[in-house]
Write a structure and sequence with these properties.
Blueprint lengths: L2 H15 L13 H13 L1 H8 L9 H16 L5 H13 L3 H16 L1 H8 L4 H4 L4 H8 L4 H11 L6 E4 L7 E3 L10 H5 L2 E3 L5 H7 L6 E4 L6 H8 L9 E6 L2 H13 L6 E4 L6 H8 L2 E7 L14 H4 L2 H20 L1 E11 L8 H10 L4 E8 L1 H4 L4 E7 L7 E2 L1
Parallel strand pairs: 4-5, 4-7, 5-6, 7-8, 9-11
Antiparallel strand pairs: 1-2, 1-3, 8-10, 9-10
């Protein structure tokens, strides 16, 4: 497999369609390197485009644009790749598109190497969004809440490859451990035993607020790929007559991954259901009754996990976030209709935006003054050194709110 050719092909598709790049990267021995190439290029896309425009009068489109971006990403932001490989291998991959493409890529990349120092000096004088490859609208809204130093640190955090953490079954010496880069999890002896799942430590906030114990009826309403559902199952006695955990998701391809993860971690007693919490509320209630605990890991703008999902920054717009907020509000309403007396909803996002987090909860409580918060936890990556996350516990009866950063 020609790694750079595959990366160019994935990036050309992404530039054209905006589809999720992780679903386009092929499996195989070079998967890790291709992923690094693709993700680095997407993270740094704005900066790379600016840099290439210093050498190209008009940026080409299609695979030629993708090849230029891949080559520039290696030269400017992947120091582990030696220069001759970055140029020669990328040019060889570009020639598979056309000889003309190969010639253009060769000329531009060699010019970029020759003038790199001057280019970096000029880059340092550009706006924060250009320097650190983030949309101006997102940078502007963060500057309204955080200092410039923290926004800079947050953008730099987002531009680093994400660490891989394992979440272990209860009873392990450490609940979370970080894997060395390049480790293939399927080679670990505990993988086949189902003793861990891949999860960032930030997920502990929502799981802790769920206050899980045996004998509860629990719904994970947005369950795929299953990381939080498995953590819930570990804390429940699903062989007990009273305990029940329903893992719900809408799409069959996501449910397939959920089932695989449940099988590997030996959780046969989790009930997997396909459907929409909002559209199928009555059917869920008829099939499963009311729930003592409901986890709402709702769709969000992902601004707390931009290093893990680098393409999400380029999808972010105020308009899209407003649509997500409407969907989140509908999910909260539907969940309340399925909540048992004295039950608890935990609303969770991986967003940093107040509209999706605290403001969403405030609006919901204005509509439902009988609902109170019994706990709020928030993770800001620059402070927690984890993925960004927000979680809030809601009950019709409860204690005073507690807030921990």
């Amino acid at each position: 497999m020609n790694s750079r050719r595959e990366a160019i092909f994935v990036l050309a598709q992404w530039l054209d369609t905006g589809d999720f790049p992780d679903r386009m990267i092929p499996a195989g021995d070079n998967h890790a390197f291709i992923t690094d190439l693709v993700y680095t290029t997407i993270r740094r896309c704005r900066t790379l485009t600016w840099a290439l425009e210093q050498f190209v009068a008009k940026m080409p489109k299609g695979e030629t644009e993708a090849a230029l971006l891949v080559g520039a990403a290696q030269i400017l932001f992947m120091p582990s790749v030696v220069e001759y490989a970055a140029v020669n291998e990328t040019v060889a991959a570009a020639k598979l598109t056309s000889r003309q493409t190969g010639g253009l890529v060769n000329a531009v990349l060699r010019n970029l190497i020759r003038k790199r120092d001057q280019l970096l000096e000029l880059l340092a004088k550009q706006s924060l969004g250009t320097r650190l490859s983030h949309p101006d609208a997102l940078v502007t809204r963060w500057l309204e809440r955080f200092s410039e130093a923290e926004v800079t640190a947050l953008c730099e955090w987002n531009n680093q490859p994400a660490e891989t953490y394992l979440a272990w079954m209860p009873g392990a010496e450490e609940p979370f451990t970080r894997l060395p880069r390049g480790t293939r999890i399927e080679t670990l002896p505990e993988y086949g035993e189902g003793r861990f799942i891949v999860q960032d430590p930030s997920t502990a906030a929502a799981i802790s607020l769920m206050d899980i114990r045996p004998g509860l009826r629990v719904l994970d309403a947005c369950a795929a790929p299953g990381g939080k559902a498995i953590q819930l199952a570990w804390r429940m006695d699903l062989q007990g007559a009273e305990s029940k955990l329903v893992a719900l998701d809408l799409y069959e391809d996501r449910l397939a991954v959920l089932r695989e993860n449940l099988a590997r971690t030996r959780q046969p007693n989790v009930t997997v259901a396909q459907g929409s919490l909002v559209d199928d509320t009555d059917a869920l209630r008829a099939a499963h009754g009311l729930f003592d605990r409901i986890l709402l890991d709702v769709p969000c703008s992902n601004t707390g996990v931009l290093r893990r999902r680098p393409d999400a920054r380029w999808r972010w717009t105020t308009k899209r976030m407003k649509k997500l907020c409407e969907a989140q509000a509908n999910i909260l309403e539907a969940a309340l209709a399925l909540l048992a007396p004295n039950g608890r909803i935990v609303y969770s996002t991986c967003s940093l935006e107040p509209e999706e987090n605290r403001k969403q909860i405030t609006a919901f409580r204005k509509t439902h003054p009988e609902v109170i918060c019994t706990g709020v936890e928030e993770r800001i990556p620059t402070r927690s050194q984890t993925d960004g996350a927000f979680a809030c516990a809601l009950e019709r009866e409860g204690n005073e709110v507690t807030i921990r950063d």
